[in-house]
Write a structure and sequence with these properties.
Length: about 260
Amino acid sequence: MSQLPFGYEIADGIATITLDRPERLNALTFDVYRRLADIFYRMRFAGDVKACVITGAGKGFCGGGDVEEIIEKLFERGTKEVLEFTRMTGELIENIRRVDRPVIAAINGTAAGAGAVIALACDLRVMADTAKIHFLFSKVGLTGADMGAAYLLPRVVGQGRASEWLLLGDGIDARTAHQSGLVTKVAPADRVLEEAMVIARRLADGPTLAHSMTKRMLNGEASMDLASAIESEAVAQALLLRAEDHRSFYDAWAAGEKPKFKGR
């Protein structure tokens, strides 16, 4: 793999992605979008990854698309090329959702525009008490429905909050984000990554097959009726009831020991 425009490492089952343009608030470029989408696609088949954390270098998480590197250049492109770009940005979000490992956003600072949607696409979010999240598309004359935001946000915080945030584009502070269920945990800025890694470690050491199936079901059931969802869960649970991890839990429980999960 050629050198990536962001940090990427895997250690003891946890992949860490660090957006690394701190002088630009980790703003995204065409190349960063493309390479992030590819990384998350490949992660679906990476046997050495059990959980993933994404964060930003410096004081920000991600300020969205770089105005000079992306916005200015898009004015020089035709509609076909612009559509290719917007589809690529959506591909990144879809790949985050489709990777069947838990993905945790460590929001160490401002998450704006595309950065807010990347954090939203993650399964869990740890946010600095000094940070803000901005779904600011409407403030710059664009639809708030970008990169899947209008699909994902109502499912996390409800239609009312999603309408408020996507229409007005105002910043969401950590307290409001936590109270609304947008973030899992609030931490001091210098401990955000540490707290996110604690969660990632817990997930990586747990029954990863169960985590994968849970994420698949959460994604799949969003468009199902109740009867279809119940049947899908019945089939999924029957498979997990026959899996080695569940048997390991039972044997350990019977012996008064702690289970050792193997992800199968």
